[in-house]
Amino acid sequence: MGEQEKEKSHIPTRLNILFLLVFLFFAAIILRLAYVQLVEGEQYMHDLEKYSTRELSIPAPRGRIVDRNGEVLVDNKPVFTVTYVKEQGQDIDEEQLADKLAQILKMDDVEPGTDSELLKKVVELHATLPVSFKPDETNALIAKIAPKLSSLPKVDQVDQFSDPVLAKAAIQTGMRVNASLDKATQDKLIKQLKPLVKPVLTDEKWNNMSNADLLKYAVANNLSFSLSFADDDRKNLRKNLKEELRLLPDAADLPKQDDMELLRLASRFDIEVKLPFNDAQRQYQWRKMAILNEIRSYGIASYIPRRIKVNITPEEDAKIEERLSELPGISVISEPIRQIRPDPDGTPFATHILGYTNTISESRLNEYLAQGYKQTDRVGVSGLEGYYERQLRGKDGAMEVQINKNSQMVEKSLKRPAEPGNDLVLALDWRFQSAVEAALKQKVEEMKKDPKVPKEATEAHAVVMDVNTGGVLAMASYPDYDLNLHYDRKAFNENYDTLIRNVEENKLIRGAWPPGSTAKPLSVMLSLQEGLVTPNETIYDPGYWIVGRDTKKYNWRRSGHGYVNARRALQVSNNTYMYAMAMRLADVGYKKYGSYKPMFSVVDFYNAQFGLGVTTGIDLPGELTGWFSQYQEIGNLADAFIGQYNSFTPMQLAQYAATIANGGYRLRPHLVEEIREGTVDPKQPGRVLSTIEPEVLNRVNVDPKWIKLVQEGMFMVTQGDGTASRTFAGLPFHVAAKTGTAQTGTGADNAIMIGFAPYENPQIAFAVVVPKSLRDGFHSADTSGAIARKILEAYQSFYMEKQPAK
User: What count of other Cβ atoms lies within 10 Å of the Cβ of residue 641?
Assistant: First the structure.
């Protein structure tokens, strides 16, 4: 019987069936993926892009600035702004849109330039001009362009060029070449170009000129230069130059070009052109280009609305609403801008305290972008707006927008509301600040009408400080200007040259004048502290003192004051006493160092102790340290002791006076007293986030008894035959002061006064500077003293209880 056949296995068959099923499954997936990608991919991609989401910022209202009593000084007011954004499905001819808007909007900050500048702007914006030349005009333009085209190199020559030749060819083609030039090459080119370039440029413009512009001037004037490109820069420049050369027409083909294309070529080659426009047409084209520039705003994502014009007039608003259907992408929105409280009499208020906001300058754009700002944001530029930018800014809200592949907006929804910025509460009372401003204005206007006052007397400055806290109770300059002009471009441009240009800088912290005799209290303290004199020692004043070997330096009273001690020297503002102290200090230098010159550093040390020649630390941007003389002759040391050497700011003088008044504590001056959380309800103050506490910068290195002696001497200034004895007569409290007359050498001297009050219990210190307001024979009390009295009368009215006159 044969062997029984083995039973066959079914496993291979089943595996084959399983493999077949898996293969069919994956094949189906692959076929489906191929179908989705190849057939439906574009639609899915479109749907994905359609619902791509981005965040659109909602600007937060800036915090308010209020005075110590809660009176609002700076707030936000709603204005209408024209914006542009292209949404999904819109096919907008932006140049045509700009043309229509130019018929409606007056672009207040547009300054028309030359025809060549207008043409360059047109080319930059890829726009056109409605030009039509006569045949002879067209031929004349072709005759200017043809030689430029013919002189350009051929494409196949570019690779053989050395770096200087490559740069020259690119510049001649109309390209901008950025190259690294060493200092020697820059200086050489500037020296060669200065006599060649017309109109003449200032040294500042030459020194700040970019290498690209310097090379352009060099090529235009056929000057040779040396430079070397990095390998990648050379490669890219050659590539770009070749592309430009390929795009340019041959000279023989110029007659085939239309007038606008000829103008583009003329602009490329810096050929001067005269456009066929009258003045009105030319102005219109500048306005149109300004609008188109805002519409296109290169570098900003297209889904972000562009501001075309802020604070439009009601008439402009009405015209846009009437024609809105013809203006695709255009909207009129309400947004806040800053509004500064004017004085009740309509005059400017706190010009050099509050400051203003503006768009981010190009020089600081990268700095702000790195901090999370947007290119379209407005930021504080000066004053408290600038110093407290981070506090006032607030937190922007967000609108979630869906955009398509062209970055066009499809849908939007609110993600989070904007949070207002924090509020600043100032140490000052607006009424007192207003009174100080009025005192300055009144005196300056009186001086302008007084034939006894030099015609150069056109300004005055004052600072008032709380001697115990450092709070600035008032600071003002006259003339000033209305900060609201910064938010009305038309009015700003109309008034800039006449009202703003010369008074825009904050001279309270950036202007410097010799302190004159107001430096004498410090000179007395230095002399006593250094052991140069004893408090009751008298110096005989015959009207002069010999300085150095044989130089006579005179007292302001040529007949002299006879015997004077420290207190008396301050009372009558004696120069001779100060000269004697300066020479004693020089003698110390001779004995210790073999020279008097190291003693200038002793003077600087004491100055700095009281805030002179150093920054005061006030919460305002841009404070300067004053002006320092570079001369160190023996006579200059004597000049320093009477305040005719270095120059200081009004803010420094006020801090100096306050330091004397409070017994030697130099306090940081501050305008802001509290920072509060911003609120939506303007009537409801936010919670206090921080309080500015008094900050002692240093305790002066002077014995308190010498400070007390100087306080007594300053009190004597306002008594008896003191130089300000009549200035404060009749006030219901005693005043300590020091007058100062600083010579300018022009016959129009500066009047300065510092002081504090009440003398027995000092509360405030003040400094008043009235430049070029005195002729020979007049005293500072005649001008600065009159202002100081008005300030103290106002202080008594707002801050002190009524008391009988003393």
Answer: 25
